[in-house]
């Protein structure tokens, strides 16, 4: 624990460093002294977005000679597929063709359509090109900018209708982007673009036209609930923190997105970091905090890089520091790095990690709102939750509350992945059905296979089977079918996925990530994992199945924190909906999906021509026969490595 | 760690960083991140040094290092290959990819090859789910790797360097 004095010292230190950047570089101060200065900068910056805001469509031909923008996706997926090189090549090529002054190349946040990345969009003629490679740059410049024609081969073609789209792709039809409003629309590394897109207007409104009580009321009335998984009403959290007497309070942005298969928060931080900073400022002024922390995974270097740029720019413009926009608000933000512990997504564990200790959770109450960071009232909000705050302030609680279902308002961002055609980031109103997300937005299952289950909530959630595809997604409905909203990972599985193996996968994760503090989670998840291993290896008994359910219930009710309390969910939901698969593993000793190696049986069919290749490749020499006749596998010695099946040229080897 | 930098220089770099911090003990995790950046790993001697410098019990430093999976107490190879074991990669064949990598490198996940060229580790989701299954070598994502020949091709690129 840190003493009160050192806490104060440290806080003063932060304030001292605030003025540093612009003074050190000897630049004239860029600090915005009041709302009028902010509005003046906004008016001056509007031109940056002008050709992205056209209401009347402009054809590529008509756009010739006009100022143009090429927005290249800089999200994680596209970034990994060379999008930074594409930006550089465009700059070189445009310069070579004398177009550098007319056409500007910008890197944005995630477009969402990750399956078809790298993606880029050209304005003002709104042309979206997909799967652009570094080799396409010269062609695009020639066709699009010199000839004034769309490059047809890089447009999206709907595989069902075979219609090609340059804009308004079917992928976006059912989406509503609130938290992702600026991702792919602005360049995240330029604060002026955010300001031109109404950035920091909500803050100005809160500082000069509202009192903290009114802000809390608006957030409460909007119905916004925590997007990190818990679903606690955000307005109430702010009110609790504010109502606890203290000299100092803290606001923490939880960006420790640890769910495997989830990348919503990362995309917001990369694509629109200022929206998070602005929301933290609003929260800070409302709950009475002068210091905020962003706790971000060290595995997210790009998000950290963009956050650092955003924080520096906000300080340069006087939007962080002392006397923000001429008000009496003093507020600064520091980035804290996670170090690869899933449990740190739990708020008390996260607070311990910021304090520099092992990230172990502790018993609540006291809640962080009462005694949090360094014993002070602390409000912990998730990235996506925060990204919703500025639009709620600007457009009003009623607008936000008009979207969604009775108890779950607004939109939710999902990271759609797995066996689906359109992997990507989607934002839909609460209450949208899974069927719509998977089959309309997601474009259905890959390779025309059959849908088996959708997994939400990561290691804390459950698998949702076909019969629940039409349930409107909100916090309550997902819990009622044994899953949970979680942070927004949505993994689609097809007939080729074994549900027992999936449960085993999640339990392995929970065993790895259990911090070890409470016995129920530390030992319980380990025993559950061991039983699942036995079942997938063909050693399971019917008693194991009963034990799984009983032990799961014990771990759920007696674990200290959310990790343990929800770790058995993948088991319970798969047993409920896919009991027959468990029985197949236990009683029939087969894996219907053909995944669990220990249960596979390889056989050579009559398609065999006796070429001898499989026998030569078998590492344990268990295949025998006469050349030019059907070969046979000795089942007792087979190690199920699959080498024979991989080598066979005649599809003569099957497994079941 | 480059060869022409002496260990003393590295310690000096770390000390300068610690001295520049406005607050120390509470920044233990930040210091460990920096130390791992400078030294590549966190051996006992270095942990002891950090403990003394921050005026913390060595047990506490060790407790934190061993708690977080990002920190390593063993030296790594020249290249580190991380295999993504996020759910999206898992359902698209990450387990097979892991087996293949282990086979071709002749080591298990968490180990380093004898020639110190490769370390193999797994991590949970790097957010490139559209490109699943992926491996990340020295921070660069290698996408949609399915066949043994593709694994070999990727590793060979780094072997030549």
CATH hierarchy: architecture of the largest domain in chain A: 3-Layer(aba) Sandwich
**Coarse structural class of chain B:** alpha+beta
Please tell me the CATH architecture of the largest domain in chain B by its name. 3-Layer(aba) Sandwich
- Describe the sheet with the most strands of chain A: 5 strands, mixed
As a whole number of angstroms, the C-alpha radius of gyration of chain A is 28 Å
Overall shape of chain B:
elongated
Termini of chain A, distance in Å? 59 Å
Largest sheet: spatial strand order of chain B: 2-1-3-4
- Number of helix segments of chain A? 27
Number of helices of chain B: 7
CATH homologous superfamily caption of the largest domain in chain A: NADH-ubiquinone oxidoreductase 51kDa subunit
Number of domains of chain A: 5
User: Globular, elongated, flat, extended or rod-shaped: what is the shape of chain A?
Assistant: globular
Query: Strand percentage of chain B, roughly?
Result: 5-15%
Q: Averaging pLDDT over every residue of chain B, what do you get?
A: 91
How many strands of chain B?
4
Question: What's the total number of strands of chain A?
Answer: 19
Please bin the fraction of helical residues of chain A.
40-55%
The portion of residues forming beta strands of chain A comes to: 5-15%
| Major beta-sheet overview of chain B | 4 strands, mixed
């Amino acid at each position: 624990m840190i003493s009160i004095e050192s806490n104060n010292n440290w806080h003063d230190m932060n304030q001292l460093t605030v003025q540093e950047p612009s003074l050190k570089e000897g630049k004239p101060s860029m600090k915005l002294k009041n709302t009028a200065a902010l509005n003046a900068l906004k008016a001056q910056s509007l031109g940056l977005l002008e050709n992205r805001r056209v209401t009347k469509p402009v054809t590529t031909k008509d756009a010739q000679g006009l100022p143009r923008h090429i927005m290249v996706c800089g999200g994680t997926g596209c970034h990994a597929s060379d999008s930074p090189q594409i930006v550089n090549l465009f700059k070189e090529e445009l310069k070579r063709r004398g177009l550098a002054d007319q056409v500007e190349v910008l890197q944005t946040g995630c477009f969402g359509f990750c399956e078809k990345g790298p993606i880029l969009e050209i304005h003002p003629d709104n042309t979206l090109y997909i799967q652009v490679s570094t080799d396409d740059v010269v062609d695009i410049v020639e066709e699009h900018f010199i000839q004034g024609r769309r490059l047809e081969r890089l447009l999206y073609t709907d595989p069902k209708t075979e219609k090609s789209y340059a804009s308004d792709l079917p992928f976006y039809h059912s989406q509503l982007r609130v938290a992702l409003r600026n991702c792919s629309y602005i360049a995240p590394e330029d604060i002026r673009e955010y300001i031109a897109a109404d950035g920091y207007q909500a803050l100005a409104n809160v500082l000069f036209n509202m009192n903290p009580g009114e802000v809390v009321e608006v957030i409460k009335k909007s119905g916004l609930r925590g997007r990190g998984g818990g679903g606690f009403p955000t307005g109430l959290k702010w009110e609790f923190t504010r109502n606890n007497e203290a000299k100092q309070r803290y606001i923490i942005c939880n960006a420790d997105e640890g769910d495997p298969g989830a990348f919503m928060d990362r995309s917001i931080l990369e694509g629109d970091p200022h929206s998070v900073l602005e929301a933290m400022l609003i929260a800070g002024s409302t709950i009475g905090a002068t210091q905020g922390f962003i706790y971000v995974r060290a595995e997210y270097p790009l998000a950290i890089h963009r956050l650092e740029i955003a924080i520096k720019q906000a300080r340069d413009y006087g939007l962080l520091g002392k006397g923000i926009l001429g008000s009496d608000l003093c507020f600064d933000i520091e980035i804290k790095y996670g170090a690869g512990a899933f449990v740190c997504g739990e708020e008390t564990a996260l607070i311990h990690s910021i304090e520099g200790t092992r990230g172990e959770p502790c018993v609540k109450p006291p809640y962080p709102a009462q005694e949090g960071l360094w014993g002070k009232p602390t409000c912990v909000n998730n990235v996506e939750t925060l990204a919703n705050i500025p639009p709620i302030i600007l457009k009003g609680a009623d607008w936000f509350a008009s979207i969604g279902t009775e108890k779950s308002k607004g939109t939710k961002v999902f990271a759609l992945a797995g066996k689906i055609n359109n992997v990507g980031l989607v934002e839909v109103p609460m209450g949208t059905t899974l069927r719509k997300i998977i089959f309309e937005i997601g474009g259905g299952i890959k390779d025309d296979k059959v849908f088996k289950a959708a997994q939400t909530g990561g290691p804390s959630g459950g698998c949702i089977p076909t019969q629940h595809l039409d349930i409107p997604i909100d916090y309550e409905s997902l819990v009622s079918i044994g899953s949970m909203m979680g942070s927004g990972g949505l993994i689609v599985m097809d007939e080729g996925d074994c549900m027992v193996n999936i449960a085993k996968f999640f339990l392995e994760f929970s065993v790895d990530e259990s911090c070890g503090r409470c016995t129920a989670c530390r030992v319980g998840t380990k025993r559950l994992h061991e039983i699942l291993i036995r079942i997938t290896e063909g050693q399971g008994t019917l008693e194991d199945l009963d034990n799984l359910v009983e032990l799961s219930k014990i771990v759920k009710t007696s674990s200290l924190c959310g990790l343990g309390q929800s770790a058995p969910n993948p088991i319970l939901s798969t047993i409920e909906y896919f009991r027959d698969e468990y029985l197949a593993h236990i009683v029939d000793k087969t894996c219907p999906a053909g995944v669990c190696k220990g249960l596979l049986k390889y056989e050579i069919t009559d398609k065999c021509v006796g070429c001898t290749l499989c026998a030569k490749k078998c590492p344990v020499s268990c295949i025998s026969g006469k050349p030019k006749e059907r070969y046979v596998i000795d089942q007792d010695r087979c190690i199920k490595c699959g080498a024979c099946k991989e080598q066979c040229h005649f599809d003569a080897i099957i497994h079941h | 760690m480059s060869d022409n930098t002496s260990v003393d220089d590295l310690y000096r770099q770390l000390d300068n960083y610690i001295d520049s911090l406005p607050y120390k003990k509470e920044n233990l995790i930040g210091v460990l991140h920096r130390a791992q950046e400078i030294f590549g790993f966190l051996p006992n001697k270095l942990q002891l040094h950090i403990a003394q410098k921050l005026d913390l019990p060595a047990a506490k430093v060790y407790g934190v290092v061993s708690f977080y999976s990002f920190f390593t107490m063993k030296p790594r190879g020249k290249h580190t290959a991380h295999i993504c074991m996020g759910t999206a990669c898992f359902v698209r064949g990450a387990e097979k990819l892991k087996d293949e990598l282990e086979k071709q490198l002749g080591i298990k996940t968490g180990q380093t090859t004898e020639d110190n060229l490769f370390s193999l580790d797994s991590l949970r989701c790097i957010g490139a789910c559209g490109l699943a299954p992926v491996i990340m070598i020295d921070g660069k994502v290698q996408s949609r790797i399915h066949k043994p020949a593709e694994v070999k091709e990727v590793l060979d690129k780094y072997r030549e360097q």
